[in-house]
């Protein structure tokens, strides 16, 4: 299958809206890994997150004729998945209650730490890990979107459904808190933060669940 141009969002989105199964499949394949990685930050149950992604794309396909314009497919998908995961979590009595102003968001590392063989760097990353865990959930999410997903402040505002000013506050408060905790330890926060965010994506699952899209079409 010939890859469509995923750098030109509006035409590709319009092709999907017009009923192009090829455009739908290309969008699914391209964004599935980042959606899964982002979703797992809200819910560690990978099957639930995968179900949410499937539901999201099923709804998109079924409602394709009624979709509005979109300048950024990625932003639309991230924002939609975020809403769906939190909505389902709140509706599940077995799930921890999520407050609108402090939703759960996980950024801890796991086996990825084994990739670091330099002991000093490992200690720096672990110190940052502990400092990040002490941040409010929304600050963690804003940091993740900014430094791992490379989203602009405006894009983060759309995804998190807050103002751009609020995004600035979240990120700068988070960075101030990290500097305050780590600077006395002699930690290079910008450098270690870059390593940390790179490690978050090291365990991403690529291509998993792609074949299920055939069920929608």
Structure description:
The chain has two domains: 10-91, Orthogonal Bundle (Rna Polymerase Sigma Factor, Chain: A); 112-216, Winged helix-like DNA-binding domain superfamily/Winged helix DNA-binding domain (Arc Repressor Mutant, subunit A). Helices cover 60% and strands 0% of the residues. It has helices spanning 9-17, 21-39, 46-62, 73-91, 119-133, 137-148, 153-160, 164-182, 189-200. α1 packs across α2 (21-39). It is elongated. It starts with 8 loop residues before the first helix and ends in a 17-residue tail after the last helix. The relative contact order is 0.14.
Describe this protein with a few key phrases:
217 residues; mainly alpha; Rna Polymerase Sigma Factor, Chain: A; Arc Repressor Mutant, subunit A; 2 domains; 0% strand
């Amino acid at each position: 299958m010939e890859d469509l141009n995923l750098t030109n969002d509006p035409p590709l989105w319009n092709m999907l809206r017009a009923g192009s199964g090829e455009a739908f499949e290309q969008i699914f394949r391209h964004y599935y890994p980042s959606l899964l990685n982002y979703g797992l930050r809200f819910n560690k149950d990978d099957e639930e997150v995968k179900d949410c992604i499937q539901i999201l794309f099923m709804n998109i396909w079924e409602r394709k004729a009624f979709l509005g314009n979109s300048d950024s497919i990625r932003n639309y998908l991230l924002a939609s998945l975020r809403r769906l995961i939190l909505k389902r979590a709140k509706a599940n009595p077995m799930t921890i209650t999520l407050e609108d102003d402090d939703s759960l968001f996980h950024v801890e590392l796991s086996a990825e730490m084994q990739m670091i063989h330099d002991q000093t760097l490992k200690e720096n990353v672990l110190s940052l890990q502990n400092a990040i865990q002490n941040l409010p959930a929304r600050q963690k999410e804003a940091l993740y979107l900014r430094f791992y997903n490379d989203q602009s402040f405006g894009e983060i505002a759309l995804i998190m459904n807050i103002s751009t000013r609020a995004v600035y506050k979240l990120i700068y408060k988070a960075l101030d808190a990290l500097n305050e905790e780590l600077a006395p330890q002699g930690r290079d926060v910008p450098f270690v933060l870059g390593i940390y965010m790179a490690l978050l994506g090291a365990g991403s699952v690529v291509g998993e669940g792609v074949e299920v899209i055939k069920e929608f079409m």
